[in-house]
Structure formats: structure tokens, C-alpha cells
Amino acid sequence: MTKQTGKTGSNLRIDGQALWVDLMETARFGGTPKGGIKRLTLTDEDRQVRDWFVKTCESLGCTVSYDSMGNLFARRPGQDDSLPPVTMGSHLDTQPTGGKYDGILGVLGGLSVLRALHRSGYTTRHPIELINWTNEEGARFTPPMMCSGVFAGIFTEQDVLDKRDRAGIRFGDELERIGYRGSEPCGRHPVTAYFELHIEQGPILEAEEKTIGIVEGVQGMRWYEVTVRGKDAHAGSTPMPMRHDALVASAKMIEALSQIAFAHAPTAVGTVGLIENRPNSNNVVPGETFFTVDIRDPNDTVVLDMETGFKKIFADIAETCGVTLDIVQIWDAPAVHFDPACIGMVAEAASEAGYSARHMVSGPGHDAAYLASVAPTAMIFVPCKDGLSHNEEESILEADAEAGASVLLRAVLKADAGFSKDS
Amino acid sequence: MTKQTGKTGSNLRIDGQALWVDLMETARFGGTPKGGIKRLTLTDEDRQVRDWFVKTCESLGCTVSYDSMGNLFARRPGQDDSLPPVTMGSHLDTQPTGGKYDGILGVLGGLSVLRALHRSGYTTRHPIELINWTNEEGARFTPPMMCSGVFAGIFTEQDVLDKRDRAGIRFGDELERIGYRGSEPCGRHPVTAYFELHIEQGPILEAEEKTIGIVEGVQGMRWYEVTVRGKDAHAGSTPMPMRHDALVASAKMIEALSQIAFAHAPTAVGTVGLIENRPNSNNVVPGETFFTVDIRDPNDTVVLDMETGFKKIFADIAETCGVTLDIVQIWDAPAVHFDPACIGMVAEAASEAGYSARHMVSGPGHDAAYLASVAPTAMIFVPCKDGLSHNEEESILEADAEAGASVLLRAVLKADAGFSKDS
């Protein structure tokens, strides 16, 4: 790395070893025997990691506050504290059988940025804030990205406070119980820029041997529930031409959806992830099949085109097979396009630091997708082994964690300088 | 019907109304609110219907005995009681949500034959026996056709006595408890001929508007369990060409199996009745799929040919889709061919009685399939509504019940005459 000086502060360095120690140390809170983490939102384990976060950020000269949704803000003062902060963030909660990096890398990577600033004594123009968003995973309380959603005005505070988990326990009560319900109303908090470091949760960077993903946005996504109804019949005594086999019809549809996604190469994906078959007995011709459809592309027009395509083909298959078809759209998340200036800062940061990089679009949703509607936003991806995520075997390289945090540091400093000029 | 006299006794007539009353009356034992029957083997309901059976047969001049497996034999003396009996039978047990006719029609149809003989005072040359086989359904204790299987030497008595239901209750203990464990060893019982009247459990007779199915045998059948293993992956972040989607591969296989069965028209059938998908989450590319394969044809060579065909195509699909394939055969029931003389007697009986009829092969297994290995055997089918069976909505016409019993009566008398000459 070339040593630089000047107001961009690019002589600052991430302590990769300290970042890795933080990752391993916090993995104790909810750590599983298989090396993953079970740290569901607003549990005792969530409180433990929050306590650790507050204490550690304070030791780096930050003040920590939390808003009415329990979103944590570790603030490091700037030269002009009247300016809205340049922010970084992600989430410390996990899936029930989650890994050590999904979300956590973004928070602890941000912490390593604060550490670099603290150690050097460098003072940014804007205040810098590191944010831990409450309940990104949506595993205990649905939907996911709940409290960045409130922050961005997507959900109301009261709706979220009244959400209940499967045991009937209320979100608001648990937030009070663990001591992280703050007085500042969620969302009354202007932001100069937001950067989120995250593992890719996909196989592309690893396959292409790239270190940094310059994330330009989040794919548009639609979800559907499909019910195919035929007629139960005895597998031994019902001649083939007299069948109304819901599963054979569904099989043709599943194959067709895959072909439609391939036909919209290179970025489109189409998935049937869940299927239920009734009565599901080995000697009964299936009378009813239920399955989900998930289609995504960075371009909403392509998503719409895939929808039109699969609906037409599914209807044709249903007619040919003598079954009925019911398709219900259950989710529509339009594509998110991150801020060109922020994307450019991430790209420059990766290039200046000498990391191999590629532009890409996120498949999964992230808190950044909601933040993009209220502040200039971009994301930074690093590779994860086999693209595996939401899994206790989730794994990344220590060098890639450091690389991601280094790009985050540089991007934050560029935003501090770049957006200062404009504001 | 032409009135006839003479030793074939074809002037005897089935009392269709009495048969229907018997069907409705016994349907009380285990009757369900939806009009079906839940009468699992060796339960109190099974005892109740057995008690009714014993009492009713005795009122028609029969003596009733039961063997060591609880198979019931209602015997009407013939002119020469040293001859092995001409027999009829089926089963009074049902599925957990069974109908009023599957099995029951064969027993009560046989009872209506005994009633016709009793009322006319006609004496056959052979003794006539009506048999209620224990546990045809296999719903409480597996496998099905358990005690006709012991009778035919397929299973050992001790193995069956030691079978346990899901609650851990032993077959032998339950048989003792309901009072139907007899002293006669099961199977030491020569038989001149065996006829079984049954509902078709398929749609062919109804579709072709035929009253009688002349059943020539039971299809050959093989069952397999197929496991397809790919790789779990995020549905949003895994490009189509990088997927190893177990469900897409399975979908192609399910469609291929259907095509193979169609290609072996007109009698072959191939069914995937059960499928389980893992992890079965709508935003995860499926990593593992498990499904069953059921292939049948009256000709074992065709069954083998289908097996060879689907194994080859499944392997090709697995290779194309980048998944592994594991196929395990779990059941092999070779085709059963009934006795040509008995089949001919059923055909003549239907023709002489003026019923429309067609030759056919049974898809499901029946007690007759095991009896065929120890005695000349044939079956008689009557239509059931929509081919529906193993269902509380199982339904037949009163006229078809009478028709089936009338053909059974004529066939029994033909066997009494025909086999007498030979023996």
C-alpha cells in the first residue's frame, strides 16, 4: 500500500488482526457447537453482544446512543458536528443456525474503521457513526430489515413494537426487557452517506477470484405462491391418460421456470425453493401441489418480463395436464439502485488499495436497501467460502475481512471529503 | 334373467336389497361422520363386525371357525364334505379414513351368495366357504394382505404375531384380546377355488360404462426410493449456471417417468406419489430431494423395461444438472396371473347374467393375489364412483353391488360343477 498523507487520511490503516479477534470474541455470544452463532433479535445473547459493542465503542472515544427501535449509533465527533454523519453499519443478529460473518462483519468492520481513526487521532469533517440495525434477519420477528425499515419510513414504529414472535412475545416488551429502547424517535436522524460492508452470500467473487464486490444495488425481486390442483387417484389402477397429476404438472412448471431464468441471462435468477405435495403417499397420484416461485433481476423490466413468461407457460402446462392453477404474488421488492457517487467511492477505494474487484448487484436484501431511500448509499462485498451463508459453516478469509474493512475506511473518508464539498 | 334349473343352480337369485342392508348395517361399526368407516384391524370395531359376521352366517346355516391368524371361515356343507371347499372372500378391515365398500363388498357379497343358497335349500357338491381375511389393509399393522399371506405361506405365523402397531401394541396380543385367535393353524386348509368380488378402485369400468370387470390378474409392481443431492445455495445470489438444484433435476426426472409410462401404453403406469425437498425454504436453491417411484404393468417384462429406461434417463439428467443420484428398489411384486378356468367362469357368469363386462388387470394388490399361489383363483370387479377408494367418499351403485354378487354366485356354482368333474 502506498503511504499517503493529506486530508483524505488515506495513511490510516485497518488492524486486520484486531478485527479478526473481535469477530471471534463476539462469536461467543450465542456461539453453537458447530462453530456458528444463534443470536436471535432481542434475546439475552443479543443484549450481551450489544453490551460488548457499547463498551468497545466507548473505549474508542465514541458516544453510543440508541433510538426507539434499539438501533445503536456509535458516534465519533467530527470537525463540524452540525453536519449529518457519514455512517457505516450492518447487524449483529443472526439466523437460528447462522454463521459468524453475515451482518457481523459489517458492524465489526465499521468498528475497525473507528479504531483506525481513534489510534491515529485523525479528525474527520463530519461526525462518523457506526450503526447496528435491530432485527435485520427477521428470523424471530418478521419481516427482515425491520428497524432500518422504520428508520427509512417503510414501517411504522408502532407496527414493529407490536410484532410478536412464535411464542407470542411482543417485540416492544423484549426491547424494554434487554434495556435497549431509547428515547430518540427512530428516523429523525439525517445521514450524509451510508456504507455497508457484507459477505457476498453468493459464489461469484470466489469463483472469479476477486476480493471486493462493488455493489451497485439490490436485485428486484418478486415472490409467488402457486397451487396446482388435479385429482387424487390410485397409482395402480388409474391409466396414464385418465390422470390429473398435480405433481407432474408442477414438475413441468419447475423446469419451465428454470429455463425462463436461463433465457434472461446473465443476471436473472428463478427458483422454486419450497414444494408441498398432497396427499404425498407413494401409491397415490398427487391431487394437489403447492410451491413457491422467486424471481430476481437487477432490472425490474426483466423481472416483469419473466413474470409474464412464466404465467403464460404455467397456464399452458395446466391446460395440457388437466389441472387448475392459482398464482398469488406475495412479495414485490423493486430493484434498488445505490448512489453513483457512493459506488464510485467504493470503486476508487478498492482500486487505490490495490484489491481486485468487480461491480455486482446484491441478490439478498440488506439494511442498505432501505437506507438508499433516505441517504446516498453503497455496499462493499467480500467473498465467502462456497457462497455459503445462513449456515453455521459460513466462512471467510481473515485477509478478505481486512480488505473489506480497508475499502470501507477509504470509502468513508472519501465521502467525508466528497460530500463536504457539496454540502 | 332366464329362469334355469338343474345342477348348476342358476335359478338362484341374489337378494340385492338384503345385500345393501348388510352393507349399511355393518357400516355402523367404526362409522365416521363423513359416511366412511374407520375399522382398523383387531380393534373393538373389528371385533364388533366379526361378531355380526359370525351371528349372521350362523343364521344362514353355516358353521364359523377361525384359524390362528383370526381369518374367519363360514362354512356351508356340500354333498361331499371331504372335498376341499369352493371359497369366496375378502376383508372387513378398512383404512383409517376408508369407505364402505373396499373389501366389505366381497365379504357381504359372499354372504348374499350364502343367503341365496340357504333360502333355496340348494346343496352344492363341494362345501362352500366364505372367508374374512385378517388385516388386508395393512394400515395398523404392516404389511398389507398379511393373513392371506400367511395362509399362502408368504409370511410365517410367528413373524405376523410379533408385528406391532405404531403404539407398540403386538398383533398377537390384540388378536387374543378381541377373542379371534383360533386353534387351527393358518394355511392347513385346501381350497378347490377362490373368488373375490371387489370394487375396482379405478376409473375404467365407470368410464366405459361396464358393470363387471373380469380380472385376469394383478399387475407387476416395483417401488423405488430416489435421492437427488445437489447443493443448497442462496436463491438471490447464485447465478443459474452455478447451481446444483436438486429440485429442478427431480422435476425433469418426474416428467421423464411420466413419459416412459406413456411410451409403454396402454397398460403401464408410472407414478411419483411422494416428494420431500430440503431445506424447502422459498429463498434457498434446494440441495436435496427425495421421491418415490411406482411402476406397474401386467407384464413383468414391461416393468423391467421401464426400470431400465428410467434409470438410464435419470442418470443422464443427474449428470446434466450436476447432481448425484441414488436409487434403491424397496418393493418387487411380480405380476400375478389368475387361473384361466376361474377367469372363464367369471366371464361366462357375467355373460349369462347379461351384464356388460370387460377383461382387466388389477392395479392394487388383493388377498386373491396370494391365494392364486395355492388355489385356482379369479376376481370380479364392479365400478366405483370416480374411481375413488381409500376415501370416506367411496361410493358404488346398489345395482352394481347386486350385479357383482350375482356374478360371484354364478361363478361359485360353475366352480362347484366344473372342478367337481376334474377332482
UniProtKB/TrEMBL annotation, chains A, B:
<keyword id="KW-0862">Zinc</keyword>
<dbReference type="GO" id="GO:0046872">
    <property type="term" value="F:metal ion binding"/>
</dbReference>
<dbReference type="Pfam" id="PF07687">
    <property type="entry name" value="M20_dimer"/>
</dbReference>
<feature type="binding site">
    <location>
        <position position="102"/>
    </location>
    <ligand>
        <name>Zn(2+) 2</name>
    </ligand>
</feature>
<feature type="domain" description="Peptidase M20 dimerisation">
    <location>
        <begin position="218"/>
        <end position="314"/>
    </location>
</feature>
<dbReference type="Pfam" id="PF01546">
    <property type="entry name" value="Peptidase_M20"/>
</dbReference>
<dbReference type="InterPro" id="IPR036264">
    <property type="entry name" value="Bact_exopeptidase_dim_dom"/>
</dbReference>
<keyword id="KW-0479">Metal-binding</keyword>
<protein>
    <submittedName>
        <fullName>Zn-dependent hydrolase</fullName>
    </submittedName>
</protein>
<dbReference type="InterPro" id="IPR011650">
    <property type="entry name" value="Peptidase_M20_dimer"/>
</dbReference>
<comment type="similarity">
    <text>Belongs to the peptidase M20 family.</text>
</comment>
<feature type="binding site">
    <location>
        <position position="390"/>
    </location>
    <ligand>
        <name>Zn(2+) 2</name>
    </ligand>
</feature>
<feature type="binding site">
    <location>
        <position position="91"/>
    </location>
    <ligand>
        <name>Zn(2+) 1</name>
    </ligand>
</feature>
<feature type="binding site">
    <location>
        <position position="102"/>
    </location>
    <ligand>
        <name>Zn(2+) 1</name>
    </ligand>
</feature>
<feature type="binding site">
    <location>
        <position position="137"/>
    </location>
    <ligand>
        <name>Zn(2+) 2</name>
    </ligand>
</feature>
<dbReference type="InterPro" id="IPR010158">
    <property type="entry name" value="Amidase_Cbmase"/>
</dbReference>
<keyword id="KW-0378">Hydrolase</keyword>
<feature type="binding site">
    <location>
        <position position="198"/>
    </location>
    <ligand>
        <name>Zn(2+) 1</name>
    </ligand>
</feature>
<dbReference type="InterPro" id="IPR002933">
    <property type="entry name" value="Peptidase_M20"/>
</dbReference>
<dbReference type="GO" id="GO:0016813">
    <property type="term" value="F:hydrolase activity, acting on carbon-nitrogen (but not peptide) bonds, in linear amidines"/>
</dbReference>
